[in-house]
Amino acid sequence: MSEKFGSLKYLSSQTAKRIELLIQYIDELDISYDIYYGYPIIDESDHKEYVKGFIITCYGILILYEHEEEKNTFASCFLNHITNDSSLMMISMNFDKYIRFIDLSIISEYMNENLFIKVLFSDEEILKINRAIQKSYNLTKDDQREILHQNSLGAQIKKRNTFIGKYDSTQFNMVHTPIESHQRIRGLAGSGKTILMLKKLAFLHYNNPNLNLAFVFYTISLKSSLIKQFESFYRDYDRYGEPDMSKVNILHAWGGNTKGFYSDLCDRNNFKRRTFNEAKDLSENLIDPFEYTCKELNEYLKSTGFEGLYDYVFVDEAQDFGINFFHLCLSSLRTKTDGVLNTKKSGFLIYAYDELQSLKEETTIPSKIEIFGNEEKCKDINLKISYRTTVEVLTTAHAIGLGIYRDVENEENPLVNYVEESNFLDMGYKNKYGDFSKGSLVCLYRDEEKSDISIPDPLEFKNEKEQYKYLSDMIINFVNNEDVLPSDIMIIDLDERYLRKNHKNFSNIFYEKLSHNQYENNIRVRLMDKNTPNRTTIENELIFTSIYRAKGNEANLVIIINCNSVPLSSRNSLNRNKIFTAMTRSKWLVWLLGQNMDDFKSEIQKVRNNNYMLEYKSPTDEELKKIKLLSAEEEKIDTTTTNIEKMLDNLPEDVIKKLLAKHINKE
């Protein structure tokens, strides 16, 4: 199997033709290879060059050039790539053995000789060379933990963290290919959407430092880590330079006390920005408050003839935004910039999403036609591989998220959420039966290698106190006997209304048990909520958070507590989205704890019994209407119930009793 990384569009047409001729020759020999071309490097004179080609085969490495002075530049670049991996030092020490130069200006002369004679590299070495060229070390985590117990949980995590990974060509080329239209990026949880978007932002800024760029996100706690990651990725292209952050705007969508995408557009156009409470009152609960503010601002910008601000707008977590936000993004694009291809707006919108991670009941991801209309082009890029979540956890999370194995009566369709079957194929699933017609049986599976771990059975408790006692013992055992670090663990509390109270109750029990165990190290249970959103990882801390703060984060071990707060018996699709999002924060294992856990046990066991395949009947048009209707009705009931509970929290007990008595006695 061969893969092509990069873009010939950054090279001259003559150079591209020569490279294509060489590729055709190698293809005819039926030799597997990876080729990298057309991505930028900096030479010793601080001059930008575009790589003509590195071809990686088991028979050695070919470095392509056209002019004599390029030989040293490209060879030096390649050696700089591989110096980060000491196990590849033999290539530098025996350059002539492993590397051969190919002069593209006389490419036809190489067609009559055998370039591939002796096998020099193993599959693992080829993987390492690819990883070094791609600088895909962010797929691997440096794990220096000391392993005291063979086959422990910590040993499994260390092995998982230090695996040798590389991007596939779709992911690499998403970053390094010129943007010639709007782009919609659909990806699984853990497929690297955010990282790849930031890499693309860095690549674009490096290639075109005068462009005005915006990167917009939903989860406010991500800001500091997003900026840090962007700066790191920029240095992959420019080792000694710094990005111009006056041209790169990494912004929360709304912006409160700090600059945000919406608030900055308001300030620049002398338009009164709305607070959340103002927007909520003005929208009269008929529309999401942020959607209201976006529509109001967009109408104002159109009335003033606003010519735009940004050349490109990147939107991460796009599943949490509505149509008015997307239209505001389009209005923010500049109307005139040289060198950018578009008939209406000069800039482009690039947005990434996973529709099952939406945690807003009022919002569904708009279609391309709704966003752009019929005249604007928008390219689809589908990221099919999850680098974070194991196959077992991912398929189980999808099964629960969609309601595939939900217990139902008679011939009722169990689905609560619905994703177009073609979207599943775009996400890397395959259909065992091949047929997606309405009413037909579908069996979806993934062909990535399984991790051979099984999701532990959900744990049921009589009350929260018993749950927190068990959880405390569980964590202490992990740290004492399983080589687990506190920073490996994230506790996600699904009862987010009482997050602070639950954190306090759990912490009291946990710290008391720590003192009884005479544990030497000070483990801290850090609350991550809207008031303390810092995501910095500290070795002796484990995170206690809500699903809204967990989104965009990850941990080796995820423990989901108070699962009974989102009952699976409900048709509320938002509840199942929460479970899906929580489970897919996990890089290795996930536990589910709570009261009344029979439904969780049943659905997870059915996934196991089906060997982690998703088998269901594709809904008919009539069934699909019913699924959407029932889901909307239950979401409305649950929202009303939650609002009533919030009001009751602020009332004295005797007043609540009077209200209940009054309404219960009503006919």
UniProtKB/TrEMBL annotation:
GO biological process: recombinational repair
Listed SUPFAM superfamilies: P-loop containing nucleoside triphosphate hydrolases (SSF52540)
One matching Pfam family: UvrD_C_2
Entry keywords, A to Z: ATP-binding, Helicase, Hydrolase, Nucleotide-binding
InterPro entries documented for this protein: DNA_helicase_UvrD/REP, P-loop_NTPase, UvrD-like_helicase_C
Top-rank lineage group of the source organism: Bacteria
Span of domain UvrD-like helicase C-terminal: 545-593
Leader sequence residues: none
Record carries keyword Nucleotide-binding: yes
A single GO molecular function term of this UniProt record: ATP binding
Full protein name: Superfamily I DNA and RNA helicases
